[in-house]
Amino acid sequence: MDKLNENARQRKQIKLGEIDTGPIIVALLLGFIAVAIFVILRRRSAGRKDFLLTGLSESGKSAIFMQLIHGKFPATFTSIKENVGDYRTGSASARLVDIPGHYRVRDKCLELYKHRAKGIVFVVDSVTAHKDIRDVADFLYTILSDSATQPCSVLVLCNKQDQTTAKSAQVIKSLLESELHTVRDTRSRKLQSVGDEDGSKSITLGKPGRDFEFSHIAQNIQFAEASAKDTELDPLTDWLARLL
Amino acid sequence: MSKDANPKEALIKAAYADVNKFGNNQEFDKAVKAVNRILGVAPDDPTALHCKVVCLVQLSKFEEAYKFIEKNRLSSLFFEKAYCEYQLNKQQQALKTIDDAGLQPLPPNLKELRTQVLYRLERYDECLDSYRDIIKNTSDEYEEERRTNLSAVAANLAVDQTKEVPEVPEDTYEQYFNSACIQANRQKYAEAERKLRTSEKLCLEDECASEEEIIEEVDVIRVQLAYVLQLQGKTKEASSIYADCLRHKPKDAALVAVASNNLVVVNKDQNVFDSKKKIRAALADACESRLTSRQKQVIALNNCLLALYTNAGDQVQQLSQKLAQTYPQVEFEALLIRCTQLAKDRKHKEAIEQLQKFAAAHKSHEFVSKFAIIQLQLLQGNRKDAIETLLSLGEAKYKPGVVSALVSLYLGTDNKTAASALLKSAVDWYKKNEVSSGDLSDMWRQAAEFHLRGGASETAASSLEELLKLNPNDTKVLAQLVIAYAQFQPKRALELSRKLPKLETLTTASEIDALEAANWVMSAKAAKKTANTKVEPSPSTPLEKKKNRNRKRKGKLPKNYNAEVAPDPERWLPKYERTGFRKKRGGARGKDVIKGSQGMASGAADQYDMSSRVNLTKNSPATPVYQETAPGPRQQHRKGGHKKKKGGRF
């Protein structure tokens, strides 16, 4: 009886050892694969590849979007939702997002896409810029001071250059600098909001105590002239090609 | 020595302080005195010299400032010198001064002044490019004025129909006005009228200007509106607007000149004495520098025409000679006026000689001159020479109008043979040249009728053949052709007559049926009469019913009924609706108390409601300091103001 008991014990031990190895290995592999997939997906979603078209209403964003994606110039209306399209140049391609300029919808749309933006195109209407310079500067400051957009390159595109009374990029740049100086001073006196998320903190632009200049900002900001009507978008396409 | 120097320096410092103070207060005459004190002590101080020039310019003493610059040889003050020349209407000198400054690129103030000078010199292409460049690269408080000036330049460019006019902004009433001028210059008068009415409305709503300024501005717009109406043929309305504006006695000399000139045009040969006064106002020296060369040219031409209407022969000769010398592009018009006057003076021969000389000298006007000569010859009663002149037109004499005139003249001189020969040669010429155009059918028809009446059947047949080619299905022409050929070529006539419709078709079964149908229609009318007769007895039926009702026994009347007294007319109304009914006091009092809504008065609410539109109304932009507007082909308003000099501070 003792011998039988010993034999049974020995057999059990051996079986357990043999059976345990396979399932454990399989389980470990499956777990590893799942974790790997999760990490890969997260990295993919966290990457920055989009280009945003921003600016005030009626400045020509949708017209530029149609020219770049479809090569057409249709009659456009004020957008209430973002337009998304694939922009291709040679072998590279990127997603182009046309964000509405109306003040009631632009913040929400910008919130959705700003974390994945690689570049931001700020479209200015060269004809009405000198009258709307306050609104333009305010919106531009909002974009530049957002911490989520710090890694982005920015192109300020002066549209509607085919018009007789359009301003040049140099004039618009000086107008924006003087106005942004005022906006910065105004914004610095704003009350802090309660329960603000860390990711949405705003940053003071430029060097305090000195006149605002675009060269003082950490981001790369360039100015260019264009006309969607006359299909003169070469500065924009060159800029996009350089970033892709 | 040091003690002596100290009082001078103290004096200079005090004077400079005074200059600065007066300059800030815009008291430039006092500033000039202070500068003179400085120059008394230090005659060569460049800052003081500059200050004096600026003060004189601010006081609009341009002549004095210009002489001062010349005397002291202030060669570095390019801008001030050029500006004085500009204001003294020496535009060419101003342009030369700016270009000789040797500053490339030009500083903004010189560039803008150069643009203004180009505008006055009427070099609008360069002016437009310059304004585009300025607007693109600058941005300050004078933005709207530059845009307005740009649209004024575009309006002047629109006079030339071949040039393309850029899009212009339309934000202010000045810009609407300039845009309307562009449409008027492009001869789109209805649209121009609409824009002008919009401009007038915007101008009346301007809250930054005083009442007098608004009246002046509206007068400018209304004169242009009257011009547009005049060109649309609404002369009476235009005339009343002109008279109304002139009654305000506007300060703008150019506006007076334009309105006066246009009234002269409306008057034509009526109201000659009033026109004389008007044209004298238009020719005044005050508006010489304000009008463009085209405007002056038109006014001078109208002056000649007015002299023609007043039968002032010598004056016509003088004025037309002067006109031809001053404005060579209207030389032909001046010559026509002169010849018309000669014709009035019974000097047709001299007039014809002058026209012939002009035609020989200017080939481009030869055709028109010959027609003028023909008109003079006809006025003279010299038909023979007129015929010769018409025949000398070369191939142009075969044009339908010319042929018609020649035939009329030949018939007038009882020369039927020549008329017939001419028509024949015209027919032959067109056959040779194979000109196929629709408007010749009239000539063919006239030629055919003429020859048929004259008995020349062969020639008539030729014309009719041509007509038949144009209209192969015209039966009338075919019939006429058959008649013509019957005179001299019966076989051909017989052949053509086969194409004519046959007599048998005139009596077809369908037509017989139509005739029967006509009879049927008459039968229907007879049937209608019968129906009408039958209806007649029916009105008698109600009469019988009425009689039956009358036979009823009379109703029972009350016992105390009095036929003489009329019953109460209100006897069937409710009591509260009858006359004299009194309302209960309690009810009335309650209603009165309850009347109206609770709370404060609505007037006060409106007064303190800050969201109402009255409080939200924004002030319209300030009137531009400088603006140029452009008129149409006829003389129109040209509004201009003095442009304040920039950089006047010192």
What labels would you give this structure?
heterodimer; A: 244 residues; alpha/beta; 6-stranded mixed β-sheet; elongated; B: mainly alpha; Serine Threonine Protein Phosphatase 5, Tetratricopeptide repeat; 32 helices
Plain-language structure description:
The complex is a heterodimer of chains A (244) and B (650). Chain A has 244 residues and is α/β, with parallel strands linked by helices. Chain A has two domains: 2-42; 49-243, P-loop containing nucleotide triphosphate hydrolases (Rossmann fold, 3-Layer(aba) Sandwich). Chain A contains six helices and six strands, in the order αβαββαβαβαβα. Chain A has helices at residues 2-46, 61-70, 106-113, 133-144, 169-188, 234-243; strands at residues 50-55, 83-89, 92-98, 117-125, 153-159, 221-225. In chain A, strands 2-3-1-4-5-6 form a six-stranded mixed sheet, sandwiched between helices. The termini of chain A are far apart. With 650 residues, chain B is mostly helical. Among the domains of chain B are: 7-156, Tetratricopeptide repeat domain (Serine Threonine Protein Phosphatase 5, Tetratricopeptide repeat, Alpha Horseshoe), CATH 1.25.40; 171-251, Alpha Horseshoe (Serine Threonine Protein Phosphatase 5, Tetratricopeptide repeat). Chain B has helices at residues 2-24, 28-41, 46-58, 62-72, 78-87, 91-100, 108-120, 124-137, 143-157, 173-185, 189-204, 211-231, 235-247, 253-267, 272-282, 293-309, 313-326, 331-344, 348-361, 366-380, 383-391, 400-412, 416-433, 441-454, 457-470, 475-488, 490-497, 509-535, 540-550, 585-594, 602-608, 613-616. The longest helix of chain B has 27 residues, at 509-535.
